[in-house]
Each structure stands twice: as structure tokens, then as C-alpha cells.
Design a protein that fits this description.
Order of helices and strands: EHHEEEHEHEE
CATH topology: Aminopeptidase
Strand content: 35-45%
Structural class: alpha+beta
Number of domains: 1
CATH class: Alpha Beta
Bound molecules: coenzyme A
CATH architecture: 3-Layer(aba) Sandwich
Shape: globular
Strand order of the largest sheet: 1-2-3-4-5-7-6
Helix content: 25-40%
Number of strands: 7
Radius of gyration: 15 Å
């Protein structure tokens, strides 16, 4: 059974294999260990880890400022995709967001990443586009900005 736990910078080495396996390096979406550690060193950032029998199978990183939160990174190991793990990670982020009266969850997704459909499935809507946001091997790719709004 998969359980969702909170982690911190000490868990970076353990989540990096999932980061590396989940993203195609051609598109420049994955972070290095150093970038991940930097993100987790910022105030108001959080790491959620999905474990299945003590093996890390997915994680998510988000950060909030006042009543706005941004989902900075979410990844599930390819061997564990399609089992509702990203859904569980997102549900935990949203539960925590609501407890803390935050009102909006933003994210960026590469134009062409099928994760866009996952986010649409979860109620996110496209609100903008950032030209050339991701730098891949030979070219750059736009990011689509999406948001989920919570009324309280
Ligand atoms: C996107 C990602 C995190 C989804 O993880 P997951 O654990 O497989 O997702 P879930 O099993 O919770 O899927 C929930 C729903 O979204 C759908 N879905 C998930 N990934 C999808 C995808 N890539 N394309 C289309 N639909 C997808 C599932 O079919 C499922 O639909 P259902 O509830 O109707 O059955 C995973 O595919 C991944 O790690 N991708 C690579 C990294 C990445 O691109 N991250 C996003 C960066 S912005």
C-alpha cells in the first residue's frame, strides 16, 4: 500500500532516481539534485513522498506565498504510474492548502507533456503560456501555466 509522507532536503538523494526515470532528458524539465535541494531550502516549500513498501515511487514539491501555492514538481516512477499515486500526492497538497486557507494552486507544464491531461482531469485550467520556458537538448519549449482556484 502506498503511503504519503512529508520529507525535506535530506531526502533529495533518494528521490533523484525517480526524477531521472520519470522525465525524458530531451525536454529539460527535470531538476538536478542541487536545484532540488535549493528549492527545498526556500521558506514555505514542502516535499511529499509516496512510498510503497519503503521504496520511493513518487514525490511532489510545492511552495506557497501568502494565499497562493505553486506545484513546482511532481513525478511518479514509470513502473508505478497509472495507480493513482500522483492523485494521492495532489490530494495531500490540496488538503494542506485548504487547511491553511490558501486560494490558488498554480503550475507550469511543458507544452506537449501528456501530464497536461492529468492536470485537466484534476480540474486545472490553462491561464497562460511562457515562451521558451524549458531548454531541451536542441531547442526550447513553451510552458503552459495552469491554475486551480479554491473558493472559501
Ligand atoms: C503526470 C504523472 C505525475 C501522473 O502520475 P500517475 O501516478 O501515473 O497519475 P495517476 O495514476 O494518479 O492518474 C490520475 C488520472 O490522470 C490520468 N493521467 C495520468 N497521467 C496521465 C498522462 N500522462 N496522460 C494522460 N492522462 C494521465 C490517469 O489516466 C488517471 O485518470 P483516471 O483518474 O480517469 O483513471 C506521471 O505520469 C509522471 O510522473 N510523468 C512524468 C513526469 C511529469 O511529466 N511530471 C509533470 C511535470 S509538470
Amino acid at each position: 500500500m502506498t503511503r504519503i509522507e512529508y520529507g525535506d532536503g535530506h531526502d533529495v538523494a533518494e528521490i533523484m532516481p525517480v526524477m531521472t526515470r520519470a522525465f525524458d532528458p530531451a525536454y529539460g524539465e527535470a531538476w538536478t539534485a542541487s536545484q532540488t535541494l535549493s528549492a527545498l531550502s526556500l521558506p514555505n516549500s514542502q516535499l511529499l513522498i509516496a512510498r510503497d513498501a519503503d521504496q520511493i515511487c513518487g514525490f511532489a514539491i510545492s511552495r506557497w506565498v501568502l494565499d497562493e501555492e505553486e506545484l513546482l514538481m511532481i513525478a511518479v516512477d514509470p513502473n508505478h504510474q497509472g495507480k493513482g499515486i500522483a492523485t494521492s500526492l495532489l490530494e495531500e497538497i490540496i488538503a494542506n492548502l485548504l487547511i491553511n486557507n490558501r486560494k490558488t494552486l498554480f503550475l507550469e507544464v511543458r507544452d506537449g507533456n501528456t501530464a497536461y491531461n492529468f492536470y485537466r482531469n484534476k480540474g486545472f485550467n490553462q491561464i497562460g503560456r511562457r515562451k521558451g520556458y524549458y531548454s531541451g537538448n536542441n531547442m526550447s519549449y513553451d510552458a503552459i501555466t495552469m491554475a486551480l482556484f479554491f473558493e472559501t
